[in-house]
Amino acid sequence: MEKHTRRVKTRHIILAVMCLMYFISYIDRVNIAVAGPIIRQEMGLTSGQLGLVFSAFAYPYAVMQIVGGWLADKYGPKRVLTILSLIWGVATLATGFAGSVAMLVGLRFLLGIGEGGAFPTATRAFTYWMPVAERGFAQGITHSFARLGGAVTPPLVLAVVAFGGWRDAFLMLGVASLAWTVLYMCFFTNSPEQHRRITPEETAEIGYRKGDCDRAKHAATPWRKLVRRMWLVTVVDFCYGWLLWVYLTWMPSYLKESRGFDLKQLALFTALPLLAGVIGDTLGGVISDKLYKATGRLRFARCSVLVVGMGGSLAFLVPVVSAADPVTAVLFLSASFFFLEITNPVLWTLPLDIAGKYAGTAGGMMNTGFGVAGMISPVVFGYMIQETGSYNVPFTISACLLAVGLVAALFIDTSKTVEADEEREEREGLSLGGEPAFVHAGQGVRMERHHLRRPLRWKK
Q1: Which among 216, 210, 261, 271 is positioned nearest to 34, based on CA atoms?
Q2: What is the Cα–Cα distance from 27 to 15, expressed in whole angstroms?
Q3: Hey, where are the domains in the chain?
Q4: pLDDT tens-place string over residues 142-169
């Protein structure tokens, strides 16, 4: 017994493997933004063309959210995430050989297919590996690694560019992605009962019941219930995602063109806001879990963090437009991103709280908002820069959307879950003697001939 308590928990090792996936996948996602100014100069691209390259990732990414989550619910996250990681690894590797705008757009599109279903699939993986009281931390720490990946991308990519060119950066990152796939295949299982290292004590800690995973695969997906419970979370995720895409795509260009930073300064000051996001992601999940443990009020624990995060992000984004000093502007952006990322682990925890065994599909529904924002935000941002010659208008639009997300977050209710809906319908069915409700509903209806016309009419 003592031996079991001293060793690292199996779920924590799996969490570490997933953290590595978030780290690598985000480097693969944002490396194009760091290399963007160099690619733009080499290929002679306009701001609109570069915006199109940036946004090409987001179209399949948005579509694959629900598709990838649903596939994970039905076929298990191990098989689905293995295939997806192979796709984005090959796409990243091949980008190093791109010779035209069309090829760049096509490979970014393929990358979007691979990464599109990855996070909903990872969320589904946590359903049977993380206890309720650790889900906020799990989502927070994994997304912290995602932001850490975004933070190390500028110095990493620019260092490789300095020695070998931007193409070498994509080749190196493609190999790293494929190596992670092998690690994942060797260690991850869909449920604790399939893992050789798991102990009965840890299975009890997780709260997993034998056969839960197999039963979930055969359950019909309640699409209408999921949409009814998740649409508001999707709206908040869209508002969050709009500004995040600005950081992931246009930040290096903004600091170079609007604030006048050189290449060496660019590596530091692009990483600074993203490092602030690393801290925000971790704190958001930890604070939410602690609030839940202290109060027992899940809705308060989730929604309060959403409101504080979006409100703080808005408060620090507004002064960016009027800041005269470039370093001050970076500090405001860093503070705004810190608060923005506080909301991220909570957003990803909500599909687990609300949808349970359908968390893959629900996570896909939620992150469709982020994907749609990615389809629109980089293009609109580039167009507004091109038309106005300034970054002020697109930043103002982002601030307005943060305000919308803050208001929408106030109405999210974690007590209204899909499982509660199903249990209520089951109780109603049993109270009617096990017969379908429409049978009893029809007992108060009889056919009568209307007193003025010949056709049969229904009368109560």
Answers
A1: 271
A2: 19
A3: 2-416
A4: 888 887 887 788 778 878 877 877 888 8
